[in-house]
Amino acid sequence: MPESYQNSPDRIHNAIRQYLEGLYRSGIRQLPRLPDVAPSSVSQEAQQPVGAARVVAKAASLPTDPAAESLNGLDKAAILGGYGHQSGQTAMAMPDQASVASLDTDPRVALDRVRREVTHCTLCHELARTRTQTVFGTGNPKARLCFFGEAPGADEDRQGEPFVGAAGRLLDKIIQACTLKREDVYILNVLKCRPPNNRTPLPEETANCRDFFERQLAIIQPEFICCLGAVASQTLLRTTQSLGRLRGRWHDYQGIRVIVTYHPAYLLRTPEKKRDTWADMKMLMQAMGIELPNR
Description:
It contains 14 helices and nine strands. The chain is α/β, with parallel strands linked by helices and 295 residues long.
């Protein structure tokens, strides 16, 4: 088991839950395991469960403690108890729709669980050493629209909230011009820690934070994501295309519509690009069905 998952029932729980929910949405209701055979006729490796069953078996093999036993509200018995012999196979019944819907139905609770993990994260040793605090995200946990930026700056590192400095004030104006309020949307960054001297995030740093921001987006389930700047756009979309080539058209991230525009910090340095950003916002608002005043 990866070291990052040891003694971490939250992450084990999330991995199992997300895997099962994804299979359920795909229409899969049962997961077969290898048929029971005599140990003398097959190697120990071949007898191991496969697919999701291996994930569940791994979780079942962990040392029992109160936190792990409940798996934060998802009883291991509810997962493991579905195994039964059927026509010579051991199958695991998938949770019904009501059970799936009941898992972390309050996104605030689910986001807070991820937030606590972020607070204690030290995967990026330099960032963990130099940060004042982590910067998770803020806004409506059921937002239709997420604004996705690059990384915290000095003001964000000090206050623990994304986009609160000069670039944040400009983003607030952009949101207001779209007839929305900051509390209507959700704002997050690729990185949860400030890079020293606001340098560009390193590839290994964005990779370390991917699990966190992907889980945030999976919990919020927005209809739209607005990527602010090249780092956010390229990281989310897993592309090396320039921001100029990504702008002006729709992209897809796991079924969510994604639009790309300039980062507010860049607009402060290059104000002539504000017109292009406003064109991106009009395109976004039209797709969201929000009528903008004439400007």
